[in-house]
Fold this sequence. Notes:
By secondary structure, the protein is mainly beta. About 0% of the residues lie in helices and about 50% in strands. It is built from no helices and eleven strands. Strands 2, 4, 5, 6, 9, 10 and 11 form a seven-stranded mixed beta sheet that branches. It has a four-stranded antiparallel beta sheet with strand order 1-3-8-7, with no helix packed on it. The chain is globular and about 40 Å long.
Amino acid sequence: QVQLEESGGGLVQAGGSLRLSCAASGRTFSSYAMGWFRQAPGKEREFVVFISWNGDRTYNADSVKGRFTISRDNLKNTVYLQMSRLKPEDTAVYYCAASKYTTTDPNNYDYWGQGTQVTVSS
């Protein structure tokens, strides 16, 4: 079992930055690939970025390439999402999730956090 808790969301102006954190509990955290997803009102949950279990592979959605960076610290059981040059269209609830393998499909993730709201004003 893995429990995930996101933090760091808030209100920021367009062009600004935020760093989200996802704290995990569970002895097998280091064996999971981790991903960030987001969901805006009236829209489907959207893949943002993933990172492999050992951090040697990352993949970003086209919408955030060059602006968002995922990282993980397995010793601290934490994954991060550094967001820069934020745009109003980045406004969404952001979710942290864990998977047995790297994938962009939310249906293949086994565990989810409760989400944290990110609002970008124009």
